[in-house]
């Protein structure tokens, strides 16, 4: 199998996708239920974990086996009928210099009242020191209101970031909003999903008024839906080709949702760490600003499920539920765990998932 086989099987052509809905579009056991398109159904996670043995077996098959034959045999029955290579190749290409896609040429919601302390007294948020920040590093905004103000000067371009959170905290919405920022500013982006179908991602973004369908039609956006087993089997080829493909597409930002499903394909911790490390390094080599999403550990909301990606990333954002002692209201809170080469607030701030995406309330306190 050639290195480009994975690329040539990935993104379904739009006409075929519209004519024949995939199984993922007609049968979605873990249909997202929360605002913003993020799945809040823990059963979906359990369903994917139940399939881990199958994925592991596929990812660790001997060199005599032919994964290409396996996928060719049942590709018509899979919800992800194509792989990353074909997806990217068939994606509309951005019109960089007016060459028609050819390269080489010239709150819907908000906080009505301030948050209150458990004693009933209103607490004011300490002011973040907005001192002058001078740097020669090119910087960008995430695209999330309130959060960008917590990062003095912005995140360095070409950073590798990860958003960690449990089900229902808005990880997918965070990734879509991050990508929307560059699209509305005239840039281009790639969204790789291991959890949802391409159609589902487009519908989720379009419902928020972000017009991903239009950006895709204009060649500014490529959405790639991959089965995590397929990605694990093709990971070596993806690592080799991704930098070139990102450069050819002209992508400014890339989102992978979620890296946890890729990590689940490997049983042995050292193998898992090695594969994830090599993959994240290929993203850095591609020179694209990248956002990964990751499931939080079931016992600790501040770390990822396998505790790997936060050490390999340049920036870590933690999304979590906060349940006060009086049980009056379960709130959502965000924390910036780290950003290399950037000064940032270390406060935990409330946020809401609204019809317009995620809004962080920098002036409010959780307790």
From TrEMBL:
Keywords: ATP-binding, Nucleotide-binding. Residues 29-38, 78-92 have a biased composition (Low complexity). Residues 1-133 are annotated as: Disordered. Residues 138-367 form the KaiC domain. Residues 13-28, 65-77 have a biased composition (Acidic residues). It comes from the Archaea. The keyword Nucleotide-binding applies. Residues 101-110 have a biased composition (Gly residues). InterPro entries: Circ_KaiC_arc, KaiC-like_dom, KaiC_dom, P-loop_NTPase. One of its GO terms (molecular function) is ATP binding. Residues 116-127 have a biased composition (Polar residues). The keyword Metal-binding does not apply. This is Circadian clock protein KaiC. It comes from Haloferax profundi.
């Amino acid at each position: 199998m050639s290195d480009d086989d994975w690329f040539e099987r990935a993104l379904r052509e739009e006409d075929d996708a519209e004519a024949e809905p995939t199984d993922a579009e007609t049968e979605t056991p873990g249909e997202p239920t929360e605002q913003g398109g993020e799945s809040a159904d823990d059963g979906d996670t359990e369903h994917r974990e139940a399939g881990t043995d199958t994925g592991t077996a596929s990812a660790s098959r001997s060199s005599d086996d032919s994964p290409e034959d396996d996928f060719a045999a049942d590709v018509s029955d899979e919800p992800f009928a194509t792989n990353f290579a074909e997806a990217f190749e068939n994606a509309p290409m951005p019109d960089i210099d007016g060459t028609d896609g050819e390269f080489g040429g010239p709150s819907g919601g908000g906080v009505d009242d301030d948050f209150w302390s458990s004693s009933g007294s209103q607490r004011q948020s300490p002011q973040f020191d907005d001192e002058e920040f001078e740097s020669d590093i090119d910087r960008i905004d995430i695209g999330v209101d309130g959060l960008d103000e917590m990062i003095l000067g912005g995140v360095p371009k070409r950073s590798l970031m990860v958003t960690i959170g449990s089900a229902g905290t808005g990880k997918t919405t965070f990734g879509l909003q991050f990508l929307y920022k560059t699209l509305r500013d005239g840039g281009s982006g790639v969204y790789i999903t291991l959890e949802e179908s391409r159609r589902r991602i487009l519908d989720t973004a379009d419902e928020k008024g972000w017009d991903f369908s239009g950006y895709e039609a204009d060649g500014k956006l490529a959405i790639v839906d991959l089965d995590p087993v397929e990605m694990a089997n093709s990971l070596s080829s993806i690592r080799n080709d991704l930098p070139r493909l990102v450069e050819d597409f002209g992508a400014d930002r890339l989102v992978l949702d979620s890296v946890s499903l890729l990590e689940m394909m490997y049983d042995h911790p050292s193998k898992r760490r090695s594969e994830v490390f090599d993959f994240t390094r290929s993203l850095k080599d591609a020179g694209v600003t990248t956002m990964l999403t990751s499931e939080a550990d079931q016992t600790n909301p501040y770390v990822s499920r396998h505790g790997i990606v936060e050490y390999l990333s340049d920036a870590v954002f933690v999304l979590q539920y906060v349940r006060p002692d009086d049980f009056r209201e379960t709130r959502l809170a965000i924390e910036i765990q780290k950003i290399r080469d950037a000064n940032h607030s270390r406060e935990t701030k409330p946020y809401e998932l609204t019809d317009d995406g995620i809004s962080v309330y920098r002036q409010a306190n959780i307790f």
